[in-house]
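Dear colleagues,

As part of the handover before I leave the project, I'm documenting each prediction I ran so the next person doesn't have to rerun anything. This entry is a single chain, and its sequence is reproduced below.
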Amino acid sequence: MGNGTQKDSLPNVSVKNSWIVNEDNYFSRVDKFLRNVLKNVPLSAIYKLIRTGKVYLNEKRVKEPSVKIEIGDRIEIRNEDLSKYTREYKEIKPVKMNLDIIFEDENIIVVNKPAGVSVHPGKNVHKPSLIEGLKHYGTTKGFEPFLVHRLDKETSGVMIIAKSRQVARELSEMISSRDVEKNYVALVFGSPKAATINIPIDDQEAVTHIRPVRRFMTKLDGKDISLTLLDVKIETGRKHQIRKHLSMKGFPIVCDNDYGDFRLNRAFSKKYGLKRHFLHCNQMAFDFHGKHYKFEASVSQDLKTVLKLLEAEGD
């Protein structure tokens, strides 16, 4: 089974802090499995449990979040009181929503996610989430949606959703194995050159490739400010990866108040009317079941308006 552990001797039971992997709860990696079964535990705490050696797979300590698991495996958390974690978790309920559907077949549905819509219900999220809208759509079409990747609430663009648990497993595995191309468009402060950024995020490998497409100049608060439109390609999908990597390199995404300059963002927003960070997933491509898929989502209107205004200034 790849880990040299006899599984037949393990009792087929689930007790507190212990689970048997089955068809209903299966994910290909141990971290994804724990994120699914420990919905009240923050993501950072789950990775800390792994990092501090409290997670066991078939009686062996798990050392990496990416460790592969199989149906029949036993996963256990030792020496930790999970009841102390009280992250708010909302059950997913179907909500009617206007979905911008790019593509749909028997296996997947692809949508152009608008900015301002969370992918999943969460704390302080009052608007319906994308998965709730997809769940409603799925009830009318006879399928259950499964997320295989995520976009931040204020990031727009291509989102791929599986129509069955099995397809979700396969696509999640492909994404983890870096067999899916993911391209973004970002507008940043500064003048970065083409580069590969490989700074670890949360102690995990993270790889981002950037390429300048166009440069602009503007005046904000009386100062000359340089801006660069970037083509961004990511090999890994860490939380806030692009936003963190660009900020770490001194080129924060325009209007990203989590990782950028609040005063500069406020001045830009006032001048150009942008109400969210300038980041959009414009393309995803992969091979699946003998077919090549390539999905594109044009930059949304609010971002197009910003680019037109910047271009007009440069004329």
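The CA atoms of residues 66 and 304 lie 38 Å apart. Residues 18-84 form a domain with the Structural Genomics Hypothetical 15.5 Kd Protein In mrcA-pckA Intergenic Region; Chain A fold (CATH 3.10.290.10).

All the best with the project,
I.
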